Amino acid sequence: MNHDTTPAPLSPRPLRHLIENQRRLMSAAQLKAHGVGAAAVQEQCRAGGPWQQLLPGVYLLHPGPPTSEERLHAVLLYAGRAPERRRGPVEGVPAQPTAPGAAAYADAMVTGLAALTLHGFASTPPLTSLDHVDVLVPRTRRLRSSGFARLIRSTGLPTPVQVTGVPVAPVPRAIADAVAQLSDAGAVRRLLTEAVRGGHCEPAAVVRELTQARLLTRPHVVDAVDSLLAEGRTIAEDRLYAMVREHALPDPVWNVDLRLPGGPHLGGVDAFWPDHSVAVELDTRAPRPGLRQDDDALWSEYARKRDHLERLGITVVHITPKKLRESLEQQAAVVRTALMAAGDRDPAAYVVVLPR
Fold this sequence. Notes:
The chain is of the alpha+beta class. The protein is built from 11 helices and 13 strands.
């Protein structure tokens, strides 16, 4: 009696459970881990079939267009190429792939406009209208951009932020990657302005990333950065006003120049309490390309002014915009302590206070 030892074709029935995994999206490696070979995948992806290939090695397990979420995970599956992790083996139970997330996507993370949309930016397009999804990967990753997946390689990757289960580049890095693709000055200005006004990050962090990406050689980016720094200064001043008001500090005189009577100019400060000889100065410096020497000179000027004022008996509290944004109550406590300690110090030199 002859027995047919030819393996029976893979039945589509065991594949039904796959649509409940991976948000109905799987890589070729994940399918293989389920026992679904290349021939079976091709059969499922035939014209009019139930599956479709979105990117090389990435398959959508249903017909019709992918959702914006599925596009994001498809790009990460394509770029991540993480090894699969099996549970088994358990007889009769298919091996299960790693669930979507940072571990499944190795070093890949969404960046650029898609990342900013995920961070909640209003000035970026909706995910469904983006022709490309930018994904940040290590420079050593041996993949090319394909379809709607646009790879951006970097020697140093930031720590991703998890947004709705998607690893996303931090706002400053996502802005730099978005600006690299934009030639419209208005679009660049809107991104940078929203980053600061929306409280997503400080201007210095954005300028640092733009500098590292060598984007500050582009005139329209430089113009946007100048507006960004002015915007950041205004917001920091508003937070300083709020700190004094909300924490019931005595009212200072705002934005003044200090001089010795008949003597030299001592410098400007953002807030000054004459009766306590306490001043607050905001540090809104930001790194600029080719201006490291000027930046160092500016910091030296800050330090010189502070030393001079303190020799005259004036306490200078140095505050950065980041501290005002992240720890307003703590900064108010620092200023309050300086005001309360005024009575224990020797009287300060008399200085002339002029509007700045």
